[in-house]
Design goal:
Domain CobQ/CobB/MinD/ParA nucleotide binding: 4-182
Distance between the termini: 42 Å
Shape: globular
Structural class: alpha/beta
InterPro entries: CobQ/CobB/MinD/ParA_Nub-bd_dom (IPR002586), DNA_Partitioning_ATPase (IPR050678), P-loop_NTPase (IPR027417)
Pfam family, one: CbiA
Organism: Herbaspirillum aquaticum
Protein name: Cobyrinic acid a,c-diamide synthase
Strand content: 5-15%
Largest sheet: 6 strands, parallel
Number of helices: 8
Order of helices and strands: EHEHEHEHHEHEHH
Radius of gyration: 16 Å
Number of strands: 6
Number of domains: 1
CATH topology: Rossmann fold
Amino acid sequence: MPVIVVANPKGGVGKTTLATNLAGYFASQGHAVMLGDIDRQQSSRAWLSIRPEQARPISTWDISEDYVAKPPKGSTHVVLDTPAGLHGWRLNDTLKLADKILVPLQPSIFDILATQDFLRRLANEKAVRDGEIDVGIVGMRVDARTRSAEQLQRFIEGLKLPVLGHLRDTQNYVQLAAHGLTLWDIAPSRVQRDLDQWQPILQWIGGQPVPAPAQNA
C-alpha cells in the first residue's frame, strides 16, 4: 500500500491542492484511496465534506495533529496532507509511514529560503539516502519557461532531489476545489493542459524515472 506524503513546513504553497488532486487521480483509477489530514486547519477533510456523492469515492479516517495514526485496513493507496511547521516528532512519525514525499514549492526566493532547511533535512535522512523513501519536488503556480522556474531548478540541483514538474497558476484548481472535485472528475478536454502537466508527477508516483529537463541551447 503506497503512502504518499505531501509536505512543506511553509504554509500557502499548495499542499492541499496537490494532495486532493492526487487522491482524485487514485480514485479515478479505481483504487480504494484514503486522504488523511494532520493539518490543524483540516482543509482536506473540509474538502471531502463537500465532495458530491456521485464523484468517485475518497475516504478519510480520524487523525489529528497530536497523533499520526497508521492508515486503516482496506485502503490500497494513501495520501497524507500535512501542516505548516511540520517538524520534530510529527515529522519523524510521518516519515515512518511514507513511501514517497511530494514537496510543493513556489519559485519565489522567499519560499525557497523558507523551505531549504526542510529539504536538506529530507535529503540527509538515512531512509532517503538508502532509497527507502523517494522525495520529489513540484513547482507550484509557475510557468516552466520563466526565470523563476530556472531559479528553482538551480537551487534544487545542489540537493540532488528531482523537480518532477511544474503546475501552472490557474483558476481550474480553485473552481474545482470549491465543488469538492479534482481534475479527474470532469471531462479531460476542459483541463487537458493541466492533465498534461501532471504526467511526469504520476510517472514518478508509479515508480518510473522522470526524464531530466531539457537544457537551453
